[in-house]
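Weekly modeling sync, notes
Attendees: AB, CL, MP (scribe)

Item 1: holo prediction request
CL wants a bound-state model with zinc ion before deciding which constructs to order. AB pointed out that an apo prediction alone won't tell us much about the pocket. Agreed to run with the ligand included and paste results into these notes for async review.

Input as submitted:
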Amino acid sequence: MPELPEVETVRRGLSPHLDGNRIQKIEIRRPDLRFPFPEDLSKKLTGEVIRNVGRRGKYLLFRMENGSTLLNSLGMSGRWTLTGGEISFTPGTFAHGAAIGTGDGPHDHLVIDFQDGLRATYTDARRFGYIHLVESGVSEAEDRFLSVLGPEPLEPNFNADILAKNLSKTSSPIKNALLNQSIVVGLGNIYVNEVLNRSGVSPLRISSSLVKKNGKPTKGLELVTNQIRAVLLEAIDAGGSTLQDFRGVSGDDDLGWFPVNFRVYGREGEKCLKSGCSGIVKRIVQSNRSTFFCAQCQR
Ligand SMILES: [Zn+2]
């Protein structure tokens, strides 16, 4: 499943081609994906100009000049392909096997043609993704999908104090809390495992125990905050560096993550990589998700 770094890589791939581009035609090939397509979507956006392609958590946001925003969740297998002229391009390495979307495939559900001849095709074989329209005049803070989201970890104002505030009354284990999008957005299971290992914090720690009585973050929570940023930026860098290779080529990596060097994820029974630690990586299950950690250096 695409996580924040993958979605950010898709955004970076689309933005230079779509920002400022005028929509000439929108074709919707079926009534729904995970949810029905917004009513009159095609009518509402035909002729509109995309001001910019943004992102909030794992959502792509196509912000229009008229103040409305087309929101897209990629779900499990959603991807965008740009074709037209010299361009044939599927940004993101998580794309699942099949040929790139040209607007003619059985899973090409939404096709947007632009004034300059570019075509953006949304392909989603499993249809867990969805499209939603934040109407003009409705702020993102009022929108039902966006209003529930916690802070954006890559924004400059994100810090350990904000995280401490959101965790101070949380009695669930820190592993589960960091997966909760209302506490902090964009962290999937794999990345949370890595963040906690690198921070030396046990996934079993009760969240509020990482906050001092005066509401300030503990040292451990400061490490977690720094590692959230570091792991996400590393993953985005890894995606960015492979982006060129995927120009016009379908991704064959269906693992759903970028090649960050994972220290714990998928390494059950192997030696912990922290220098000086002789622990062995364990796997447990928390809220039906695999947790990998080293009980010796993660406290
Ligand atoms: Zn260890």
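Recorded for review: The first helix runs from residue 4 to 18.
Action items: CL to compare against the apo run; MP to circulate these notes.
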